[in-house]
């Protein structure tokens, strides 16, 4: 007389496996949104025994000598210039955080380093990271125990810089290799191989006068801009210890 | 406990891929480039569990690895999903010796595919900028990655395949 409705057991929501997959997917979305904080912190703990020691003496001493010499010259010039233009920012004198490099990707597709100091130690997104030699990059992401730094060589990095000799402003753009490109938006910009490049006093992202690199080669002038390859003073592939400038400008 | 580890070995090894990806040992690299680690796990997993599983775990791997890198220029998800799907269609070979070389070749091809997808995404994003420089460094990355992935795959993939098979047999 009456059709007996069969209770189906084959509905998709009855399958435990689908719910497990859905759970994993939600967890991974959480990992993605938190930018891998969990993984980075986990890596912090398991890599702890392998953190770099206080070696690399030669590389570091040589770079520090070079840095000090260039910095001294820059500060002298800058002092005179700043006396004239009082409205410009003063040279930064920030509180530094010393951090070890616990993960390093300096070649290939990704150009970043991960440091063993995170938001717990007061590191903030946008903080400047310097190593023996000069500027390395900016903090792009922090977890509780770690912070990730975008290197100057990364295509993501775009910073305002200053050619010291000709006092010209330009933009330093990472091009995915070890030599970032300096772009000067003037066909007649005065630039030579060997010119020293530092952070621009006009930059809103960096404190002024942080040594960055030396002009290695000058490319052909394209339309209304001049580009040059920069050899960086700080070598991210060998540096084990860095300084994070705590205060954002 | 031992039984648990044997059964879940494939999932446990999955968790270690991002750790190796972060570790990035320089001494294993060529021109600063590393082998493409996720493919070593994805190939045996997809070969055993099929295309759909490969596709899903390609997505999972992509999600994790994307979260560990700061790069907004490209995502690893499309490459890994495509490789996962493709690897799932490959039949297991009974000849161990041929199998080793097959793994090397397949992983090289997968790495080439992923590398090309990365490069095309970078070039697309930076269309107006100085593309030539990015193109040259991208080609260098692809070639070094393909070589290294093909070199290490026979050692790692064959071992993982053996382990996954063993844990599957024990599970059944």
Given as residue ranges, the uncertain stretches of chain A (5+ residues, pLDDT < 50) are 87-93
Biggest chain contact:
A-B, 42 and 39 residues
What percent strand of chain A?
25-35%
Major sheet characteristics of chain B:
none
Helix content of chain B: over 70%
* Radius of gyration of chain A (Å): 24 Å
Return the structural class of chain A: alpha+beta
In helices, the fraction of residues of chain A equals 10-25%
What is the string of SSEs of chain B from the N terminus onward? Answer: HHHHHHH
How much beta of chain B, percentage-wise? under 5%
- Strand order within the widest beta sheet of chain A: 1-2-5-4-3-12
How would you sum up the major sheet of chain A? 6 strands, antiparallel, barrel
Report the oligomer: heterodimer
Secondary structure: number of strands of chain A: 12
Distance between the termini of chain B: 18 Å
What's the helix count of chain A? 3
Radius of gyration of chain B: 16 Å
Structural account:
- The complex is a heterodimer of chains A (249) and B (172).
- Chain A is 23% helix and 29% strand.
- Chain A has 249 residues and is α+β, with helices and mostly antiparallel strands.
- In chain A, strand 7 (168-173) and strand 8 form a beta hairpin.
- Chain B is built from seven helices and no strands.
- Chain B is an all-alpha fold.
- Chain B starts with a helix and ends with a helix.
- Classes of the chains: A alpha+beta (249), B mainly alpha (172).
- Chains A and B meet through helix 1, helix 2 and strand 1 of A and helix 2, helix 4, helix 6 and helix 7 of B.
